[in-house]
Amino acid sequence: MEIQQDKCSKVVLLNDQYNYKIHNHVENNFSICNKKVKKLKNHNQFFLFFFRFKQLFYNLKKYYEFSNENIFNYIPLTFHIKNGIDDLEWIKFIQYYNEIQDDKKQQNIWIIKPGEQTNRGNGIQVLQKLSDIQEIIYQNKYHENGRKKTYLIQKYIEKPFLFNKRKFDIRCYLLITTYNGLIKGYWYQEGYLRTSSKEFNLKNLENKFVHLTNDAIQKKSEEFGKFEIGNKLSFNEFQRYLDFLGQNKQFNFIKKTQQEMKVIFLQKIKIKKKKKIACDIVKSVYKKIQPNKSQFSFELFGLDFMIDSNFKTWLIEANSNPCLQTNCLLLSRIITNLLDNTFKIAVDPLFPPLNIPKSKNYLIPLNAYESNKFELIFDDQNDGKKLAGFECESIFLFSIYHWFFKQS
């Protein structure tokens, strides 16, 4: 198996030695039918547009309108400002901001994210004063390619559920495969918590070590790794923390929660909510993937969630290029198994391992799920039919234009 680089994808796997012809077989989670496979891409350039948070916001918004749901039950209230102070969304934001100021039941804290070219926490600010937010919007800046910069203004979660008085988010994984024109989405059953280095408070909004939990920010703190190795926490460690809190009667949320609900808090209730959101993400981009779905490809995405003090789960970010570094023992175990499980589902059925006899290749898809932590949450053959009436604004032509623009 040879690994080559091309312009359209990060890695292309070529198999010129065998030129495999995948035999007919249909299994509940697989359907690959007599196709000669020479190339499998692990990075699809079209996904880049669908999984930027700005575009994902619009995809989810349209999907939830289609399914008669409110998107802001799943992500914090968001305004996308595309045309500066003349934008209708900016006017709506000003109105909402003033309503909160008058009501005074919550603090008027917002997180400002660049609409484009953002990664690893770059350009993200937590602000409260309207004048500070206006200063950003009024700048009217442009990218080097001449396109106007846009901004996402999102309601800051002012009362997050805390771990030992510190903020955290939860990194989860979503795998999407496209085989023979069929799209499948898989939820990975293990993830981890990313903790902050400073105790949570709303007095100093400029301190990113308090408010932003991604590694690119936290590793610059002098207290990085002081409380948890690499500022990482496993699901089991978090569950033990919840169990410990359950023994202390001063925590109000325990009084409102049945003992059995406390025990399954992480494993059942919140994971179920996250899986629903992950499945909704696949559904929201399903029609847009279709123009290019005939190629064999797969991609792994990182989804970041937060839990507030009322145990409500929020999607706060989606990453088309999640960090796979293994800078601590916990990540070494999780990431290694994650990649192994990914290859079992996405690669092995098309490019069988050399230690497996050709006569046994047909068994690979059937065995792919043995001890595999990926769970099928979207199946084109079943779920795709339910989306027949879902029509969304296509950015396919824009994607083509943007891709060629980058190559020139």
UniProtKB/TrEMBL annotation:
It comes from the Eukaryota. Keywords: Ligase. Its EC number is 6.3.2.25. GO terms for molecular function: tubulin-tyrosine ligase activity. Transmembrane segments: none annotated. The keyword Mitochondrion does not apply. Gene3D superfamilies: ATP-grasp fold, B domain. This is Tubulin-tyrosine ligase family protein, putative.
